[in-house]
Design brief:
about 350 residues, 11 helices, about 5% strand
Length: about 350
């Protein structure tokens, strides 16, 4: 360690609390996202929607974070040092920051999808064909991790251990680092795109509602359109809620990394990190609490699970009933014989 590096002391209580949160989030997040993937994949109505493809992509991203990144983070805070070797130290920030970019780009794709279905519904099926969705997902996953290639190769900054914070992260190389650029542009730009898109959605919905009330006289057509618009509106509100929660969870971490790069307030960094981890855990609960279609998908999955568990119990009950029936029959015959005698 060079002499100009200022030692940073994390309170032991903060690191223990962080490691406990990481372990809990790992378990809950893995189960929640895994169940969500199964539930959506098994629901014919939802799986046929383009939005579901991006939601599944978001769930897979969160599942990877909970099952790979969080255990490594827990190990780091428990040991208060990096114990997993140099290669994993270089790959860890690629996965960590790539996952953040992946989540945001999936939300951008979801928002654009919502805007398209509300503003350009007649062209929606052509714009969101299976090939189009596949290409969009391929682009999202590629770009998310490609932005970490310059520091990984040492072209712009480097990925290495920062001993004072026992963190594998983006460091300066030759006085240059893309860290703030990735935080500001990789976080701020997608957020601006999402916010503008939701403002456009709101204006379009308000305008369409007014026009519909003015010009539509056919009750059947009005009911059909209003039913579709209600479903689209509910799903759009759900995705907006997911984005708001994501920003709420990640904004503190982005701020402390940009404005307190020297880690003068280590406890603040720890709690900001814990809040950011929570973003990969809360989405399944938001799906279940906020949208009827998603609740139905969960309930169908749990019904299938119960059905696969209960047959053995049903067979045992049936055999027990048959056994009791045979015993009753034998008893009846014995009474009859005794009476005749």
């Amino acid at each position: 360690m060079s002499d100009d590096i200022i030692p940073i002391k994390y309170p032991r209580a903060a690191t223990i609390f962080a490691s406990i949160c990481a372990i809990l989030f790992c378990i809950v997040g893995f189960l929640g996202n895994f169940v969500t993937i199964l539930a959506l994949a098994r629901c014919p109505k939802l799986i046929s929607q383009a939005t579901t493809a991006f939601v599944l992509s978001l769930c897979i991203s969160d599942l990877i974070f909970c099952s790979v990144s969080l255990p490594l983070i827990a190990s780091r805070y428990i040991s208060e040092k990096w114990v997993l070797g140099k290669t994993s130290c270089k790959l860890f920030p690629v996965l960590l920051y790539g996952n953040v970019a992946l989540s945001l780009l999936n939300m951008v794709a979801i928002t654009i999808n919502r805007y398209t279905i509300i503003s350009y519904y007649p062209y929606y099926n052509k714009l969101y064909s299976k090939l189009s969705i596949l290409l969009q997902l391929l682009f999202i996953w590629t770009v998310s991790f490609l932005i970490m290639l310059p520091p990984l190769l040492g072209i712009w900054g480097q990925l290495d251990l920062h001993p004072p914070t026992f963190s594998c992260t983006i460091l300066e190389k030759d006085g240059k680092s893309p860290k703030k650029f990735i935080f500001l542009v990789g976080f701020a730009l997608p957020c601006v795109v999402i916010i503008i898109s939701y403002i456009c959605i709101y204006l379009k919905v308000r305008s369409s509602t007014k026009n519909l009330r003015k010009h539509q006289t056919n009750d059947a057509a009005r009911n059909k359109n209003s039913r579709r618009e209600r479903e689209d509106g509910r799903l759009t509100k759900l995705m907006l809620l997911i984005f708001i929660c994501f920003v709420f969870c990640f904004l503190p971490l982005m701020c402390v990394n940009v404005f307190d790069d020297d880690v003068r307030y280590p406890t603040l960094h720890v709690f900001a990190s814990i809040l950011a981890w929570a973003s990969s855990v809360i989405n399944p609960f938001i799906y279940a609490a906020s949208n009827r279609q998603y609740r139905t998908a969960y309930s169908k999955l749990f019904h299938v699970f119960r059905s696969s568990v209960t047959p053995s119990d049903s067979r045992q009950l049936s055999n027990s009933q048959k056994s009791r029936g045979t015993d009753n029959k034998n008893t009846h015959q014995l009474v009859k014989i005794t009476t005749n005698e």
